[in-house]
Amino acid sequence: MTQTSRARKFGLAVAQMGPVHLADSRQAVVKRLVEMLREAAARQATFVVFPELALTTFFPRYWMTEEEAVERYFERAMPNADVQPLFDAARELGVGFYLGYAELTADGRRFNTAVLVDRAAKVVGKYRKVHLPGHDDHKPDAPFQHLEKKFFEVGNLGFPVWNTQDINVGMCICNDRRWPETWRSMSLQSAELIVLGYNTPSWNIHWTEPVHLRTFHHEIVLQASAYQNAVWIGAAAKCGSEDGFHMIGSSMIVAPSGEIVARASGEEDEVITAQIDLDLGTTFRQHVFNFAKHRSPDQYRLIVERTGAGEPLPLPPEARG
Ligand code: ING
């Protein structure tokens, strides 16, 4: 088999964050992000993935009014004075990054958002979380809330793919990773690398779920999605116990083979890196998941036409046996 002259190697880092407590200032948090960016650059990474809602504690766990949430937890601009040190360090080091944060738009709309920043520290992309888990009502008897449906609108930017650093990069956020549509929407746009942040409580407030399943489900959705879409994945947790509320770690880099090639071992700030080979994705896209050769969208219409599960379709005559 002829070897390509130069493999398309790319230094990818995932910067896992330990807890951000209610008492932690944005300045203190940004200092941690800058330290991890520097460590990633020192380890030859040119792109760093930070978590979802990276600048604050996971505030949807607390009941409050939207106005209170906006006042304390939302960013009116990106970059802004608080995060400028991160953008300055990124420009100095020539390292791009993904950053998740709570976005307040100029016309007052609220989204769970992530930006894609290039090696000159320019914001080149924005994504707004589509799959919002949890609820919008107060559950006073629950050990904590999960009020993403109260504090955020459903994302309205679709699932874009950008070309940055000569790679087709897509973004998603946390719960998005559980839905196959997320990944297929981007692999159909020839994404090669998909990056995401997450804040995943280890407790389930809706039923008594064994705690190990949180990590198990996190693993299978990333490994299956990487393989089924022939993409590299970088996934960054904010984790550990935030004021007593625990969230899972297991930040990881997953290859298009579905193999986990790097994984965080703790629940504090931790940088994991890999020199990823983008030609691996090309191989899987050519031989296994060659969409043009094997897919039949006319047979899958239901996936787009229906929102909730409904009645079985009328059987085609020849399907009646
Ligand atoms: N957190 C969780 C996540 O999707 C969740 C919420 C956990 C939903 C487990 C369903 C099952 O990882 C966020 N922020 O989406």
Q: Would you spell out the secondary-structure blueprint of this structure?
A:
Elements: E1 9-16, H1 26-42, E2 47-49, H2 66-73, H3 84-93, E3 96-104, E4 110-117, E5 123-128, H4 148-151, E6 161-164, E7 167-173, H5 180-187, E8 193-198, H6 212-229, E9 232-237, E10 240-242, E11 245-247, E12 252-254, E13 260-263, E14 270-277, H7 279-287, H8 291-294, H9 302-305
Parallel strand pairs: 1-2, 2-3, 7-8, 8-9
Antiparallel strand pairs: 1-14, 3-4, 4-5, 6-7, 9-12, 10-11, 12-13
Bound molecules: D-[(amino)carbonyl]phenylalanine (ING).
Description:
Keywords: Hydrolase. By secondary structure, this protein is an alpha/beta fold. The chain has one domain: Carbon-nitrogen hydrolase (Nitrilase/N-carbamoyl-D-aminoacid amidohydrolase, 4-Layer Sandwich), CATH 3.60.110. The protein has 9 helices and 14 strands. It has helices at 26-42, 66-73, 84-93, 148-151, 180-187, 212-229, 279-287, 291-294, 302-305, and strands spanning 9-16, 47-49, 96-104, 110-117, 123-128, 161-164, 167-173, 193-198, 232-237, 240-242, 245-247, 252-254, 260-263, 270-277. It has a 6-stranded mixed sheet with strand order 5-4-3-2-1-14. Strands 6-7-8-9-12-13 form a 6-stranded mixed sheet, with helices on one face. Helix 1 (26-42) runs parallel beside helix 3. It is globular, with a radius of gyration of 20 Å. The structure holds D-[(amino)carbonyl]phenylalanine. D-[(amino)carbonyl]phenylalanine binds at residues 133, 174-175, 178, 198-200.
